[in-house]
């Protein structure tokens, strides 16, 4: 009978960990930081594209978590802006060459 209680405790602990993980805003913060870095490095065209795409990907993953939704949306906007700035500088570089 004590084994049933142990199984129930383990299931309850797993459910608590899963809930705590979905309520954690860490992924949203990481996406926001990567989005800001993407915007800073976006004048270097290819690096801006790669880091911008990473910010968008992290933002999409984080937007599913309610605690990080706002930060994730901002990160996706920053990643998209970084890609656009990278395209602008790439086009400018090609036009001046």
Automatic annotation (TrEMBL):
The keyword Transmembrane applies. The chain crosses the membrane at residues 30-63, 75-96. Keywords: Membrane, Transmembrane, Transmembrane helix. This is DUF4190 domain-containing protein. The lineage of its organism: Bacteria, Bacillati, Actinomycetota, Actinomycetes, Pseudonocardiales.
């Amino acid at each position: 009978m004590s084994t049933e209680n142990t199984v129930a405790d383990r299931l309850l602990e797993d459910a608590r960990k899963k809930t705590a993980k979905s309520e954690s805003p860490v992924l949203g913060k990481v996406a926001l930081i990567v989005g800001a870095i993407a915007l800073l490095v976006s004048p270097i065209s290819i690096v801006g594209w790669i880091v911008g795409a990473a910010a968008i990907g992290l933002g999409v993953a984080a937007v599913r978590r309610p605690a990080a939704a706002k930060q994730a949306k901002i990160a996706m906007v920053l990643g998209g802006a970084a890609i656009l700035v990278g395209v602008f500088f790439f086009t400018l570089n090609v036009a001046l060459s």
